[in-house]
Design goal:
Helix content of chain A: 25-40%
Number of helices of chain A: 8
Organism (chain A): Actinoplanes auranticolor
Number of domains of chain B: 3
Largest sheet of chain A: 6 strands, mixed
Protein name (chain A): ABC transporter ATP-binding protein
GO molecular function, one term (chain A): transmembrane transporter activity
Number of strands of chain A: 11
Keywords (chain A): ATP-binding, Nucleotide-binding, Transport
Number of helices of chain B: 18
Shape of chain A: globular
Largest interface: A-B, 33 and 28 residues
Structural class of chain A: alpha/beta
Keywords (chain B): Cell membrane, Membrane, Transmembrane, Transmembrane helix
Strand content of chain A: 25-35%
Order of helices and strands of chain A: EEEEHEEHEHHHEHEHEEH
Order of helices and strands of chain B: HHHHHHHHHHEEEHEEEEHEHEHHHHH
Oligomer: heterodimer
Strand order of the largest sheet of chain B: 2-3-7-4-6-5
Radius of gyration of chain A: 18 Å
């Protein structure tokens, strides 16, 4: 990893990033020469039709996949060519993830799931720190429950607490409300909104206009390219824009 | 980390019970065989025996040591194979868990440490339970050994304190070794795999190809070497062919599974589902079949080879015997009886013989046959020219090893060493026999007193067999040569059966439990998959039927590949018997083999029905709703 002199107002930046799958006739450019900057302290939603490359974009920005070309910067750290160990360390300290399928470890209690990143980073997880993270998502009283004893919305909130316990620079969320009913989804979005208002950088992929409308800005992707951008739009405006894209 | 290990253990208990059981039984089997081997090797002859009796006692003790050595070898082979493959399978089944650990910031080191920690814990539990289980196994093995007369009546396995260390080495060592390779591989899992379908990993790695082909080459080499290895060496090499081939085929199984899957009739939705599952989950199918390949390969190979060699020995004995009556007496000497044209009296005695010299010198108790050369050659056609056998000149017997005509062997008798030039030799035989033919008068009379003597009698033309038999009955037991050959054949077969039961009985049972383990471990992670099938509209019965069909197909693959491994041994058997006796012989115990194959199908079928029944007990919706 090399440190560049890029101004640090950017949480994550992609510079001319491409990523393809397959070979020959079946080759697909999932992300095609994308330049984008996610500003620090803002919540950005990424939208687009199915197959537009939004999940790949998120995975690239988070260092879960490698770009074929271009550069990926986390703050002022170039992670394009980071080793597996360096990326692992990043996941422990500077990046948090939330996914549609909550991906909690079924054998561990909520509390143990939340403490896991800290233990992996060899930091002694303070009981108070873990409790605080659970309290922040409103689940202080569910600490000893196993994931299967929790509702979907509660499981997703545990996942958010797990992602936030290390106070990451950026929280990546891939369809965080995709598997939730509308009430649970609203609770999760309220949580994310409150975090963004406190200065948390969030990059979220979603296909739900209502969810995207809660973000500060919305990026639109089609066929692996950035095609549009909206700021402070309503769910209605976002939905209209998305429909226009799919035409 | 340890807490995570322990809670992980509680969650996936089927996997871990299976792994622990494989360690426990492996430790028990190896420990028991090792203790019995040591006990037999240090067995002291009872006081008050004559020198000849002491020699006979040591001879039979050496035979039981050899038998127990083979038993230990098999136990160790099975323990290594079953423990390491079970542990590797449990790791492969948890790919998604491990990817998840990586996703939340776990390094490769963490994954390795977690898996090694678990292996250590399970190895420890397996060892702690395996040591007492080993004592029970030892009691059982001792009963078999005594019951079949391979060891004297009062024989007991002796406890040795160091065995605790050896058993811990076996249990912990094999568990860790099994996980070591799998853990390195598992640590390379990509965090993204947690978000996708688990088990996206490539099954056939370069290492797996290489190891598989290495063992396959070993099997081929053994097949080539067996016919030139002589009777004893050839038989030993032959027995090892199926071991090598079974390991090779179980490693290469993932390549072969899809081909076999195509043989399943795709009729109906269950057939289609079973077929698709087999092909899609090559790793699971191959891992389930692996212990079965070894069980079938080893058992089919060993019992087939053993029965064939016994049959070849019987045929050889028949060809090499020209007489009308066989008289069994003790000690040398045979009366002159009217109506007897010729007779060959052969007295058998153990002898301490040193062959080779210097560094290659080897001293063993072997059996010597006191013969009258001309009569011996008449009673045993094909023996060749033995007239030079007189004074201290001896001949190489049918069961000799490590020397031939022109060499000099040293024999110890009458209190001192004697150099005996080997001036002649008879053809070696697959059934073995005496190592040395010695002329009458060489060995002291007191050594031969009480030694078993067999006299092959040829009647004079026109003599009345009944009268001669009656007259000879006053000196010993008289049998018509056909009856005698038949009884000899039965005795050989029964001994070879007994040996197989001791060597393979408990090991086979262990391997069968390994098979059950693999089926249970394979089904443990399939709750969601079954639930998805049911949510799609399959009834519970259809899911069970698909699971049963799939397990039958895996069993078929295992039995087929195991039989293929055994076929390697059969090729070597044909080549060896042809080289040694001139007639290629293969005699397979079909009933036993069929019974084993049926048992395999019943056991895997029942296990898979039970596990999938219990996995589908809860309503599918509750499983689909919650991500594990």
């Amino acid at each position: 990893m090399t440190t560049t002199s890029t101004p640090t107002t950017t949480a994550v930046a992609l510079r001319g990033v491409s990523r393809g799958y397959g070979r020959g006739a079946t080759a697909v450019r999932a992300v095609d020469d994308v330049d984008v900057e996610f500003r620090r302290g803002t919540w950005t939603a990424v939208m687009g039709p199915s197959g537009s490359g939004k999940s790949t974009l998120l995975h690239l920005a988070a260092g879960l996949e490698r770009a074929d070309s271009g550069r990926v910067l986390l703050g002022d750290t170039d992670i394009t060519a980071a080793s597996d160990n360096e990326l692992t360390a990043l996941r422990r300290t500077r990046i948090g993830f939330v996914f549609q399928s909550f991906n909690l470890i079924g054998s561990l209690s909520a509390e143990q799931n939340v403490a896991l990143p800290l233990r992996l980073a060899r930091r002694r997880p303070g009981r108070a720190q873990v409790r605080q993270a659970l309290d922040d998502v409103g689940l202080g009283d569910r600490a000893r429950h196993r994931p299967r004893e929790l509702s979907g919305g509660q499981q997703q909130r545990v996942a958010i607490a797990r992602a936030m316990v290390t106070a990451p620079e950026v929280l990546f969320a891939d369809e965080p409300t995709g598997a939730l009913d509308s009430t649970a989804a609203r609770t999760v979005l309220d949580l994310l909104r409150a975090m963004a208002d406190r200065g948390q950088s969030i990059v979220m992929v979603t296909h739900d206009p209502a969810a995207a409308a809660r973000a500060d800005g919305v990026l639109f992707l089609r066929d692996g390219r950035l095609v549009d951008h909206l700021a402070g739009a309503s769910a209605r405006e976002v939905a209209d824009r998305l429909v226009a894209l799919e035409r | 980390m340890l807490r995570m290990s322990i809670s992980g253990l509680a969650e996936r208990w089927q996997l871990f019970v299976g792994a622990t059981l494989s360690v426990c039984l492996g430790v028990a089997l190896v420990q028991s065989s090792l203790l019995l081997l040591i006990s037999a090797a240090t067995l002291d002859p009872p006081a008050g025996l004559s020198p000849a009796e002491r020699l006979r006692f040591s001879d039979s003790a050496e035979a039981s040591v050899a038998l127990l050595g083979v038993t230990l070898g098999f136990s160790a082979f099975l323990a290594v194979f079953i423990i390491s493959s079970t542990f590797a399978f449990t790791v492969a089944q948890r790919r998604r868990d491990l990817a998840l650990l990586r996703l939340v910031g776990g390094g490769r080191r963490h994954v390795r440490r977690l898996l090694m920690g678990e292996a250590l814990l399970l190895g420890l539990i397996g060892t702690v339970t395996g040591v007492p289980a080993g004592l029970a196994v030892m009691a059982l093995q001792t009963r078999l050994l005594v019951g079949f007369g391979f060891v004297p009546g009062g024989f007991t396995g002796q406890w040795r304190d160091w065995i605790l260390g050896a058993s811990a080495g076996v249990g912990l060592g094999l568990a860790l070794a099994g996980v070591l390779v799998a853990a390195r591989r598992a640590a390379r899992v990509r965090p993204l795999d947690a978000l996708r379908d688990p088990d996206a990993g490539r099954v056939m790695t370069a290492g797996r190809w290489l190891t598989g082909l290495f063992f396959a080459a070993g099997a081929v080499a053994l097949i080539i070497l067996a016919p030139v290895g002589g009777p004893a060496g050839g038989q030993a090499l032959t027995m090892n062919v199926s071991l090598c081939a079974a390991v090779a085929l179980s490693l290469l199984a993932p390549v072969l599974v899809p081909g076999v899957a195509r043989l399943i009739p795709a009729a109906g939705v269950t057939g289609m589902l079973a077929r698709a599952n087999l092909r899609d989950e090559v790793r699971r199918s191959a891992a389930t079949a692996a212990p079965l390949i070894v069980l079938i390969g080893v058992v089919f190979g060993q019992v087939g080879a053993s029965a064939s060699f016994a049959a070849a020995g019987v045929a050889e004995q028949r060809r090499g015997t020209a007489a009308d009556l066989v008289v069994e007496t003790t000690g040398p000497g045979f009366p002159a009886v009217a109506g007897v044209a010729s007779f060959s009296s052969e007295t058998e005695t153990p002898l301490r013989i040193t062959t080779g010299r210097g560094d290659t010198a080897d001293t063993l108790i072997q059996s010597a046959l006191v013969v009258e050369p001309a009569a011996f050659a008449r009673a045993h056609p094909g023996s060749g020219y033995l007239q030079a056998l007189r004074g201290n000149a001896v001949a190489g017997g049918p069961g000799r090893e490590g020397f031939s005509r022109g060499d000099t062997v040293t024999a110890h008798f009458a209190g001192t060493d004697h150099s005996l030039p080997v001036v002649a030799e008879v053809p070696t035989t697959i059934g073995g026999g005496a190592a040395l033919l010695v002329p009458a008068g060489l060995l002291p009379a007191d050594q031969l007193a009480g030694a078993p003597t067999r006299t092959f009698v040829t009647l004079a033309p026109g003599a009345d067999p009944a009268r001669v038999t009656a007259e000879l009955s006053t000196v010993g037991t008289v049998t018509g040569v056909d009856d005698w050959l038949r009884a000899d054949a039965e005795a050989r077969t029964s001994t070879s059966d007994d040996i197989m039961l001791i060597v393979l009985g408990l090991g086979g049972l262990y391997a069968l439990i390994g098979v059950v383990n693999a089926v249970v471990i394979a089904a443990a992670a399939r709750g969601r998959e079954f639930a998805a099938a049911r949510a799609t509209g399959l009834t519970r019965l259809q899911v069970l039927r698909a699971a049963l069909l799939e397990s039958s197909a895996v069993t078929m693959i295992g039995v087929f590949l195991g039989a293929l491994a055994a076929a390697g041994t059969y090729v070597a058997v044909l080549a060896t018997t042809s080289a040694v006796t001139g007639t290629a012989t293969l005699d397979l115990p079909w009933t036993l083999m069929a019974v084993l194959a049926v048992v395999a199908f019943v056991v895997t079928g029942l296990t898979s029905l039970l596990t999938s029944w219990s996995a589908t007990r809860v309503a599918p919706v509750s499983l689909l709703g919650a991500w594990e």
